[in-house]
Design a protein that fits this description.
Layout lengths: L1 H14 L2 H8 L3 E4 L4 E6 L2 H21 L6 E6 L18 H13 L23 H12 L8 E4 L6 H15 L5 E5 H13 L3 H9 L3 E5 L8 H16 L3 E6 L11 H7 L4 E3 L5 H15 L5 H10 L4 H18 L3 H6 L16 H11 L4 H4 L6 H18 L3 H8 L4 H17 L1 H15 L1
Parallel strand pairs: 2-3, 4-7, 4-8, 5-6, 6-7
Antiparallel strand pairs: 1-2
This protein binds adenosine-5'-diphosphate and magnesium ion.
The site of magnesium ion has 3 residues, from α6.
Length: 451
C-alpha cells in the first residue's frame, strides 16, 4: 500500500509546482483504501481543508491510475511519526530552513532572457490604500500598453513592491501576447551591458536590440550613473521607443528631479505621463498582505499573530515578509503556534523606521521653513492661500507621519476644531491624486524632516 502512495506522489509531483508539492504533499501518507474508502493522512487539520479543496480530483485521478478503487477520499490528521511515507526525493527530512531555501531557489533562480520572474504576478499583489492608484495604472497599461501611461514612472521607498508590480505588468503582457518582446533590467545592468558592448565595438547592436522591443522595464533608476555617454544612450533608446509608442516602465526610489546625476531633459521626460508612488502600507494593508502570504504557502497562523506582526513592522513590506517567515520557522522548530510564541515572549517583533522625527513642533517648524514662512505664520488664522496650503500640508504630514489624532493636530497648527483638520487632510489627499508638484513638495518636506 505504501508503494502505491509513493507512486501516486511521484505522479502528482509531475503535475504541480515544486513549491506546492513540498507544501501540500510532503507529509502525507496513505492510511487505508478499504472498500474504496480511501483515507489520506495529513499533518494537521489545516491540510484537511486545503487538500480537499485544491487537490481532491488530482489525488483521485492518480490513485485510480495506480490501480486503487476509489469511491471517496477522506483526509485525517495522523501523528507525525506514524504512517509517514515520503516521495523518493524527500526520504530524509530536510531541516525546515533548507526546505524554505530550496523552494525559494526553485522559484527565484530561473534566469530568463527577458529578465522576468514568473513568481511576480498581479494575482499575488495585494491591493490596498497604499498602492491602489499605481495598480489601477498598471491594469490600464496591461490592457492598452504604450498609450496613456507612457512612460510609466513608479517610485517609492525600498521594499514597497516596485519590482513586484512592474514585473507583474511584464508577466501579464506576455501572457496576453506571448510574442510580445519585453525586457526587464535594473539600470545598473543596462549600464554594464552598454560598457561591455562599446568595448567590444558592438554599440550599434546594443542599440538595435532595444529598438526591437515592445516594452522596456528599467528598475532602480536612481542608480543611473553620471556618465554622459551611458545616459545619452539611455536617452536615445528611450526616445526611439517612445516615438514608436512602445511601453516604457521605470521604477526609482525617488523622483527624477531628486536624483542629482540625471540630466534635466531626461528627468522631465520620464514623468511626462505623471508619476505613481507606492506608500507605506497601513495596518489593514499589512494584515491583508500577511493573510495572502499565509494562504499562498498554506501556513497556519492565528489572526492575532498576523495583527501583532502588522502592528510592529513599520518599515516596509520586505521586512513584513521577513518577520512573518521567521515566526513561521520558529513555530515549526519549537512546535508551538505563532501566537503561542508571541504570548510566551519567545519572539518580539519591532521594526520601526530609524527616522523618527522628534516632535510635532519640529515637524511644523520644518514645513513652515520649507514654505518660507515662520511657524507663527503657519499656525495663524491667515486665509492667504499659500499660508493656508502650508497649514493643510502640515495637518496631512502630522497625520500621516506621526499618526497624531485630529484633535492633537488642531492644537499643533492653531486651528479651532478637529473638523477643520479633517477637511484639510482630505483636501491634500485629493490634491495629491492630480497635483504632481504637490507630491514632489511633500516628498521634499519628508526628506527635510527625516534627512
Ligand atoms: P522594491 O522593489 O520596492 O524594493 P519589492 O517589489 O522587491 O520591493 O517587494 C518586496 C517584497 O514585498 C517582495 O517579496 C514582494 O513580493 C512583496 N510585496 C510588496 N508589495 C506587495 C503587495 N502589495 N502584495 C504582496 N506582496 C508584496
Ligand atoms: Mg526592487
Amino acid at each position: 500500500m505504501f508503494d502505491v502512495w509513493k507512486n501516486v506522489l511521484a505522479e502528482i509531483e509531475q503535475q504541480i509546482s515544486p513549491a506546492n508539492f513540498a507544501t501540500w504533499f510532503q507529509d502525507t501518507s496513505l492510511v487505508t483504501t478499504k472498500d474504496g474508502h480511501v483515507i489520506v493522512g495529513v499533518k494537521n487539520s489545516f491540510y484537511v481543508k486545503q487538500l480537499r479543496a485544491r487537490y481532491y480530483d488530482l489525488i483521485e485521478k492518480s490513485l485510480k491510475n495506480n490501480g486503487v478503487d476509489v469511491k471517496d477520499i477522506d483526509f485525517e490528521v495522523v501523528c507525525k511519526t506514524k504512517n509517514r511515507v515520503r516521495s523518493r526525493e524527500v526520504t530524509t527530512p530536510k531541516p525546515i530552513k533548507e526546505q524554505i531555501r530550496t523552494i525559494r531557489d526553485k522559484t527565484e533562480t530561473k534566469s530568463r532572457s527577458d529578465g522576468l520572474n514568473p513568481k511576480y504576478t498581479l494575482d499575488n499583489f495585494v491591493v490596498g490604500s497604499n498602492n491602489e492608484l499605481a495598480v489601477a495604472a498598471a491594469r490600464s497599461i496591461i490592457s492598452s500598453p504604450g498609450t496613456r501611461y507612457n512612460p510609466f514612472f513608479l517610485y517609492g521607498g525600498p521594499g514597497l513592491g516596485k519590482t513586484h508590480l512592474v514585473q507583474a505588468i511584464g508577466n501579464a503582457l506576455l501572457k496576453d501576447n506571448p510574442n510580445y518582446k519585453i525586457f526587464y533590467t535594473p539600470i545598473s545592468h543596462f549600464y554594464s551591458d552598454f560598457i561591455d558592448a562599446i568595448q567590444k565595438g558592438k554599440g550599434k547592436e546594443f542599440n538595435l536590440r532595444f529598438q526591437k522591443l515592445d516594452c522596456l522595464i528599467i528598475d532602480d533608476f536612481q542608480f543611473i550613473v553620471n556618465k554622459e555617454k551611458s545616459q545619452e544612450e539611455f536617452f536615445n533608446i528611450f526616445n526611439d521607443l517612445y516615438q514608436l509608442n512602445k511601453q516604457i516602465i521605470i521604477t526609482s526610489d525617488r523622483l527624477p528631479s531628486q536624483i542629482k546625476t540625471v540630466d534635466e531633459r531626461l528627468a522631465s521626460r520620464l514623468t511626462w505621463a505623471g508619476a505613481f508612488d507606492l506608500q507605506l502600507p497601513k495596518f489593514e494593508d499589512k494584515c491583508a498582505i500577511l493573510r495572502a502570504k499565509a494562504e499562498l504557502i498554506g501556513a497556519e497562523i492565528e489572526p492575532e499573530a498576523i495583527e501583532y506582526i502588522a502592528e510592529n513592522v513599520n518599515t516596509n513590506i520586505r521586512d513584513l515578509e521577513g518577520e512573518f517567515s521567521t515566526l513561521l520557522l520558529m513555530s515549526e522548530v519549537r512546535g508551538l503556534t505563532p501566537l503561542q510564541l508571541i504570548e510566551n515572549g519567545s519572539v518580539s517583533v519591532n521594526k520601526t523606521s530609524k527616522h523618527r522625527p522628534t516632535s510635532p513642533k519640529q515637524v511644523v517648524d520644518k514645513i513652515a521653513k520649507y514654505y518660507q514662512l515662520t511657524s507663527k505664520e503657519l499656525c495663524s488664522k491667515s486665509r492667504v492661500s499659500n499660508i493656508k496650503n502650508a497649514r493643510q500640508v502640515a495637518m496631512f504630514i502630522l497625520s500621516e507621519e506621526l499618526n497624531l489624532s485630529t484633535n492633537k493636530i488642531a492644537a499643533e497648527v492653531g486651528v479651532k476644531d478637529h473638523t477643520t483638520v479633517m477637511h484639510g487632510i482630505k483636501k491634500i489627499k485629493n490634491d495629491l491624486k492630480l497635483n504632481f508638484l504637490l507630491r514632489e513638495q511633500i516628498d521634499e518636506i519628508k526628506e527635510k524632516i527625516y534627512g
